[in-house]
Design a protein that fits this description.
The structure is a homodimer. Chain A is mainly α. Chain A is about 65% helix and about 5% strand. Chain A has 6 helices and 2 strands. Chain A has a two-stranded antiparallel sheet with strand order 1-2. In chain A, α1 packs antiparallel against α4 and α3 packs across α4. The radius of gyration of chain A is 23 Å and the shape is elongated. Chains A and B meet through α1, α2, α5 and α6 of A and α1, α2, α5 and α6 of B.
């Protein structure tokens, strides 16, 4: 389970994702770039509040902003999400083992039924 | 990109994962259950400090503890990590599109070379 992972960066990514509002902003940006004003509207938040969330996402590298356009539209950068997925996938054998154990148990129960043993 | 996801639970999972120490504890527990004393040693942390981290992981459902055993060994529960993976995988088309665009660009450059156009 060793990987070349930037731990500090991952700290920042996970912290940025620990907010349903920020995750909703990312979901909105997956549909296309948007200005801060456009983002503020559906979330019924003040501009300063939404700006604060966007700054957290920007620091984590999840959002990039246009440099020259007047309204500096926000765009999603999904690269850190690929890192999150890669990190979590390390544990797939662990969560799959859970299901395997459950399968084994159910097979075991079925076998016992077949040979006429009591269930309990 | 809609999924049946418990947003509050995901908030807690991501917050718990936003610490390289807590992620290292999970990696250690993936190798097998361990007592708080056993966990404290490799991390060179005091027992209260490691206990605090374990409580955060427990609240997030990432660690379960034996109820009856004297030292209440900690065990990994990878179920929330599967949710993290599922959540992040929603964005796979976005990060893959990045690479597709890069591929297209490189193909475009190669095509221009072939027909003898200048690169710049």
């Amino acid at each position: 389970m060793t990987m070349a992972i930037d731990e500090d960066r991952l700290d920042e990514t996970f912290a940025a994702l620990a907010s349903s509002t920020r995750r909703a902003i990312l979901a909105r940006l997956a549909a296309g770039a948007a200005t801060v004003n456009e983002l503020a509207e559906p979330f019924e938040m003040t501009l300063p509040a939404i700006s604060k969330h966007i700054k957290v996402l920007e620091r984590a590298g999840l959002v990039t902003r246009g440099r020259r356009a007047q309204y500096r539209p926000c765009a999603l950068d999904a690269a850190p999400l690929e890192e999150v997925s890669t990190w979590a996938e390390q544990y797939r054998p662990v969560w799959e083992a859970r299901f395997d154990r459950m399968d084994d148990y159910l097979t075991h129960l079925r076998q016992r039924r077949k040979v006429g043993q009591p269930d309990a």
